Give the backbone structure.
Amino acid sequence: MKFFILMSLAMLFSLTAVTKSRSDIPEQFKWNLNDLYPSVQVFKQKRAEFSKKIDKLAKFHGKLGNSPKELKECLDLFFDLNRELDRLTTYVSLKADQDLGNSENQKLKNETFNVARKFAEASSFIQPEIISIGEKKINEFIKKDKGLQLYKLMLSRVLKKKKHILSEKEEALLAKTSMISDTAYQTFAILSFTDMPFPVVELNGEKVRLNQAAYTKWRSNPDIKIRNIVFPKFFGTYKEFENTFGTLLYSQVKKDWFYASAEKYNSSLEAALDPNEVPVKVYTQLVKEINDNLPSLYRYLKLRKKMLGLKELTYADLYTPLVKSVDVKYDYKDAQKIILNALKPLGKEYAKYLNRAFAERWIDVYPNDGKKGGAYSSGNAYDVHPYILLNYNGDYESLSTLAHELGHSMHSMFSNTYQPYVYSDYTIFVAEVASTFNENLLNHYLLTHAKDRDMKLFLLGHLLENIRQTIFRQAMFAEFELEIHKRVERGEALTGADLSKLYLKIVRKYYGHDKGICKVDDLYGVEWAYIPHFYYNFYVYQYATSLIASTHLAQKVIHGNQKDVDEYLGFIKSGCSDTPINILRKAGADLETDVPFKTTMKVFNDTMDEIEKLLKEKN
Ligand SMILES: [Zn+2]
């Protein structure tokens, strides 16, 4: 599914209060789902036809090894069905998200996902059958039947899984464990999001229940007195449940290792990266490079301390904006113009699709009662076009989110245009490159056109914070995640206290606690308990690698020539037609080297130079 997906913590906990009915919003600001199906009636008819077609798969069961012809016919049917299913599920998902309280639409969605399950069951024989036919015979088939050429890469990807597949009996037993394998995460989620007795505190004369959403809102408050209530109170609550959270995370890490070792992987990390075709080196190199570049982070923290006018910088001072947020509003029409200008370097075809997105109502712009919060792009409907859900409110964050989601949509549009369906779906590993690339170009454009110093400082500060939170902080998580898995793989046990001790050690290293740069109290060692991503099996490192790759590619486009632009377009055209690392390498960002990382650190340091220059001018 191409619903992206890399959620920030802030989004995860965001609450939106809206009081505008959907019918009050003019049509031009609502997405046009008629491009998918002209009416619900037509949709239902297509779904019924689809459901019938599923039965045709059965005749291939046990026959794929008979002849190239049978293999090809089965794959053709399978991908045709998949393609139609993508369109069906896109329709019902988008319709449901317009108004989560609309039970008709929810029902339509549930029914359709039942049909999707039926399809998954009916086609579940295909992969094991391909694997049992074996590489030699499959290659002979491909030679004999030119029509199978299209599926060559897809077939080789399936065959590669052979190494990690067990006997039929073992696989069946392993499949059954899925009934119990998400207990740790489910318990974590219930405890963290429902049962935690978060305290009620008084902030600015307002009584606030200090849950995750409130913490995210108040942690950046400019008043240090407020932050010094928020931080200890919030993490103090986690500290009380340190033992429970520790048991849960320990269970999760054991679970990861159970599946990794059962499937004959050398480590949990290898098992997590292998399905995405990402080498372990990309992960370990990220952690190493970040460690080598901590002095750049220390420089930023010192600058932050100076700009905030603090005697001592502590862990509670990290989220406060460096400069007062400039009061700037972008109405939706202006936002479109700015984005078209900012992305102009990408050429005519890119601009053509952007214009279509705005003119042909690919975007659901404004919030309304019951509408899903946050923002996403859905590029699943291969034969139609991408869609974007926004909750646009005119601030800088909204403008930047629009650029971000358009990055995903353009990635989908180009890949869907230039790749056959079977290779159109780009992987999670590269997904956030195209989106954060657009944020980079937007920031660059706004900076070049900023009229006053405050606006410049605001934009530069934004860039620095983005790099701190997306690269340094996520790499820090990645380092912690790797270490706890290694310990379990060595047979060591982990308690809540062990986890806090380790986390504190890492966080103090990153923030220069022992060097007197940022003071991290013992209490914040428990921060790991608050992070849901540690249950996502080596996920967070991709935030960092994506921004590193996109920063490098954006610098190439900003300072380079037509070749750099073409290489970038080559990347968004490529879907999953090669490994994600090869695709990025061809675009000029080789994540197996330190080059993209060096570019990013240069941008980070240049930005600080720029800020220091502006601050001097001010004095
Ligand atoms: Zn995204």
Q: What stands out?
A: The chain has 25 helices and five strands. Strands lie at 200-203, 206-209, 363-364, 376-378, 387-389. The domain at 25-165 is CATH 1.20.140.70 (Butyryl-CoA Dehydrogenase, subunit A; domain 3).
